[in-house]
Amino acid sequence: EYEELEEIWENIYYNNKDLTPFQSYEWNSNLIKNHIYNGNLNILLLYKNDKPIIIAPLIIKNKIFYNETNLLGVNTHSDYLNIIYDKDLQFEDFNYFLQLLFNMKKFTLINFLQVKESSIIVEYVKKSLYHFKQRKDISIKIPICQNNEEYLSILGKSTKKELKYKQNLADRNLKNLLYKVYMNKELGESLINEMMSLYSVRRIEKNSKLNRQYSKFLEDAMENAKNNFLSLCYVDEKLAAFNWGLISTTNDIYLIIVAIDSNFKKYSIGNLLIYNTLCDLMKENCSNQFKYNYYDLSRGTELYKYKLGGIEHYYYNFIISNKNYILILHELMLKIHRKIQILKTWMRNIVKESRKFNLYN
Asked: How buried is 93 (Cβ within 10 angstroms: 0-12 exposed, 13-18 middle, 19+ buried)?
């Protein structure tokens, strides 16, 4: 059972600064407990000289022509994925790990998706003797400066002007406007319910409704996390926006959920919350011995991230196999799948338009 690995898992995680909170035991145990994966779960533990050096939670899906393996956390709020590996892991160890996988017939194609560029695993995959395809994508993070003046210096003139205007507008028109920041704090049931209620409404507005199983996973993650990060904006004691995430062992903040009440959209309440949160974190940096480094806004290149001072960093998506024809076949299957999805969308639009036409007539 995976619970037996908790001590080993946490020891590797807390001693390797390259790993993110999405590789922690508590995050992954919540994924497993709530069954947030599609396929068969296999957790592999690799030892070297009686020392555990790799924990690999893998999800295997049986395809028609091959088996596809993903890291646990794919297609969830896990922004960065990886195996859990010892900080002194050598290339020979990683290559041996891949060799073991491919020697087991159930592993024929392995996806190492969303691996941060800073991880040694990126270098090791590129050095490996196996066939692989790669894609490099962009994430955005905001440096947490020492003071407000330093932060404002990295913003454009139009952004500074807009923030000032929106803040003044909100101060004039919104009753009891209040910002709060909590770090490493246990979140109570009522607060979690308040946050999930707002987030669920926001998802519905974006035509992406949460199912109950996934909502339960997020609620458990909020409740059980030892390293919660939360910033809130209240208007007249009503939750108007929040940022929730996790703090890494290197004091980087990884945002997982950002949500706003669309009634306050004209005030750019989401941007105001991030700006005021960064101001609070800058004060923390001045008053404490340790320093918060980055406010990671996760994958994607939305314009607001750049406007608020975000800088690019990268992650890799690798598809690895010991047989080149499997990579070619996998790519072909993906193309067919995309064409089917386009066709389904086209058919749905035709049905929608025909219903409108019938209604009109």
From this structure: middle
